[in-house]
Automatic annotation (TrEMBL):
Organism: Aspergillus oryzae (strain ATCC 42149 / RIB 40) (Yellow koji mold)
SUPFAM superfamilies for this protein: Tubby C-terminal domain-like (SSF54518)
Family: Belongs to the LOR family.
Name under which the protein is recorded: DNA, SC023
InterPro entries on file: LOR, LOR_sf, Tubby-like_C
Residues spanning the signal sequence: none
């Protein structure tokens, strides 16, 4: 039993991703200056729906995600560590394919994630207007449903902007079906944006 309780070894933290040519962001204050690894850990037995704590791999907390109980849209609110409400993540109904949106506080749409997930693979298109440049940006999210891994790629340049990998850290998390993801983010990419995409990935895989 002791082997399950050892601190996790996160090998992704030593891997470096090439910087993107143009910043990929929906917020300006959380753009990675170097390759960063985030750890998204679902809270056990949360009373507020699916909620996550988000930390850098060094252990420094960066975001909190609060699920809204009994929400038809599965609304989740994302806060920074100063308790600033950054945006919400919701599932839109009445679509053939699962569709998630990130909403600003005024209700406007920051980005849309339209998926075509299946039991053998996961594919999604992410469309948004970046905070740093004009025009729309398109990302492709391709992954594996069974292992819950995904690569997020800039559709125009083919550059990998982030990689998502589910980890099971110990026996307690396995017992409670708690999800933990390690997310590697390239320099020049918004950590808040990638956190939102990881939550969408988790939501669809839990459907």
């Amino acid at each position: 039993m002791g082997q399950f309780l050892k601190p996790p070894r996160i090998e992704m933290a030593s891997i470096q991703l090439p910087p993107v040519q143009t910043p990929v962001a929906i917020t300006d204050q959380f753009i990675a200056q170097q390759t960063e690894s985030l750890v998204l850990k679902e809270r056990i037995l949360s009373l507020s729906g699916d909620s996550f704590d988000v930390k850098l791999v060094t252990g420094e907390p960066i975001f909190r995600i609060k699920g809204k109980p009994l929400s038809i849209s599965g609304r989740k609110s994302v806060f920074d560590m100063a308790d600033n409400h950054l945006f919400d993540i919701v599932k839109e109904r009445l679509h053939i394919h699962s569709t998630y949106v990130v909403q600003a506080l005024d209700g406007s749409k920051l980005l849309e994630v339209k998926s075509s997930f299946s039991l053998i693979g996961s594919n999604a298109t992410v469309i948004f207007t970046p905070s740093t440049t004009e025009g729309l940006v398109s990302l492709n999210m391709k992954g594996n449903w069974r292992s819950r891994k995904a690569a997020i790629v800039d559709a125009a340049t083919g550059a990998v902007v982030a990689q998502i990998d589910r980890k099971r850290f110990n026996a307690r998390q396995i017992f409670f079906h708690q999800q933990t993801y390690v997310v590697m983010v390239a320099p020049g990419v918004d950590l808040a944006l990638i956190t939102a995409l990881c939550v969408c990935f988790d939501e669809k895989n839990n459907d």
